[in-house]
Amino acid sequence: MSMRLASALVLGSFGLALVVGCGSSSDSTPAGTSGTSGTSGQPATGGTTLRGAITGATETGVLDLSVPGATTTTKTLNPLGDPAAANAVTGAITLSTGGGTITLTGTYDAVTGNFTVSGAGYTLTGNLKNGVATGSYTGPKGAGQFTANATNAGAVTIYCGTFMAKGDMGNWNVACTAAGACSGSYYSTTKMGGATLTGTLTGTSLTLNDGKGGTPATGTLAGTSVTGTCATDGTCTFTGSVAACTK
Question: With a threshold of 0.90, does the pTM exceed it?
Fold first, then answer.
């Protein structure tokens, strides 16, 4: 939420750097499972598990992905070239806005980090790099964004919520590992667009940006909920909680 989450969330009205007082992992309800990955974020011997969330105009949900460590190869269009390394990817979306759990299956290219998974009308296309999966999706309710963090560094805590600004509103989420690696996404219900976010959690301060620059958004974590502003003039506000991801 650049966070003029209002008009620039989507159109770049505000570039998004979000600073949220997001307490330490011990202050929040952890979510996620353990896994292992190499330092580059590519699957290690034990594979990689990731947890994050999807964000659409009318839906949000927890996203779990698993990339096996064993790598197989597939033939490329050039029979004389090197085969592309491809892993089978499995996962699930647990919708917080109704609709239950969607099972996902697909493939991951270990050379490029690109992957695609699909199921029940949803198709997620993204890239895995340095332990963070980012991308976009399409589904029965339209398009959206997603991110997921590797859980090898500890449990991942996810906050889901909404933002409201002058002439704009929508959904957003952020997920942080116990080691302080954070990612998230937002999607406007009025502008019908969004972007993914990346950042770090240092102490109780969370910083996220969408690569567009802009005034940081600031907030404070109270238990497992977070509230704050995403514009210096107070015209953009946001709220989120752990509970909202699984309601």
Answer: no
* Phi and psi at residue 76, to the nearest 5°: -95, 175
Helices (H), strands (E): how many in the chain?
1, 18
Per-residue pLDDT tens over the stretch 31-78: 333 332 322 334 434 689 999 999 999 999 999 999 876 555 554 445
Indicate the pairing of strand 17-21 with strand 216-222. Answer: parallel
Cα–Cα distance for residue pair 204/237, rounded to 1 Å: 19
Amino acid of residue 47 = G
Closest CA to 12 of 210, 217, 238: 210
Tokens linked to 87: 């892993």
Tens digit of each residue's pLDDT (9 = 90 or more) over 179-231: 888 889 999 999 889 988 877 777 777 777 777 776 667 777 777 887 777 77
> What are the angstrom distances between the C-alpha of 24 and each of 21, 83, 149, 178?
9, 44, 16, 8
Predicted confidence (pLDDT) per residue in 136-186, tens digit: 999 999 999 999 999 987 899 998 999 998 889 999 999 988 888 888 999
Domain ranges of the chain: 8-245
* b/e per residue 73-92 (b: at least 16 CB within 10 A): eeeeeeeeeeebbbbebbbb
| H-helix segments, 34-193 | none
Question: Measured between alpha carbons, how far is 55 from 95 in angstroms, rounded to an integer?
Answer: 10
Measured in whole angstroms, the distance separating CA 176 from the mean position of its chain's CA atoms is 10
